[in-house]
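F.,

This is the one I mentioned.
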């Protein structure tokens, strides 16, 4: 009689006595399931970080950052650099994967530049993002970035911190400024148009 009974859909109630018709369809996945495919390992992500860092260090923006950190004595008192909501490096789109990788390279570079400016080996880099997977966590650890669970970054913030965040889906700026007065905040606000931050 109708697709309603043909597809064995549940009874909907009295309202269907007035118009006992219902549009029904079958969903078919466009792409096959990917759970069975091998997942990238830590060396894969570490290689991506290495390649992106070489690309980043060749840019004029990196040279500007070098000059800024070296010439501003405020950076010398920084001891902790927090990367908050920098992404998983495993996004579904290439542009988001590239941007996330670049942001972790920026976090690593800030640690190196501040350590050089402060002449200190006590500079620590931390990453907080709930989407980080074990292979990415291992890769970040291998380049000197410790991962911490939410909300530890906010709890550890103080006036010797530097905060880096890019297009977060949580109010990072508002939380940070309520809790501390960091040495610096590098913030890229959320945007409808995703652009590669290295271009």
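My design for it:
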């Amino acid at each position: 009689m109708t697709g309603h009974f043909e597809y064995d859909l549940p009874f909907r109630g009295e309202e269907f006595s007035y118009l006992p018709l219902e549009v029904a369809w079958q969903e078919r996945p466009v792409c096959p399931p990917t759970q069975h495919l091998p997942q990238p390992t830590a060396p894969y992500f570490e290689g991506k970080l290495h390649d992106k860092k070489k690309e980043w260090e060749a840019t004029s923006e990196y040279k500007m950052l070098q000059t800024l950190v070296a010439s501003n004595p405020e950076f010398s008192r920084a001891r902790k650099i927090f990367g908050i909501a920098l992404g998983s490096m495993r996004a579904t789109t290439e542009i988001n994967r590239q941007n996330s990788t670049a942001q972790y390279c920026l976090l690593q570079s800030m640690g190196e530049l501040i350590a050089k400016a402060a002449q200190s080996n006590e500079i620590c880099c931390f990453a907080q993002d709930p989407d980080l997977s074990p292979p990415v966590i291992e890769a970040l650890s291998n380049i000197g970035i410790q991962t911490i669970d939410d909300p530890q970054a906010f709890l550890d913030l103080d006036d010797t911190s530097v905060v880096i965040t890019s297009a977060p889906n949580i109010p990072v700026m508002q939380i940070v400024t309520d809790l501390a007065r960091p040495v610096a905040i590098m913030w890229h606000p959320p945007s409808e148009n995703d652009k590669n931050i290295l271009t």
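The mean pLDDT is 85.

Talk soon.
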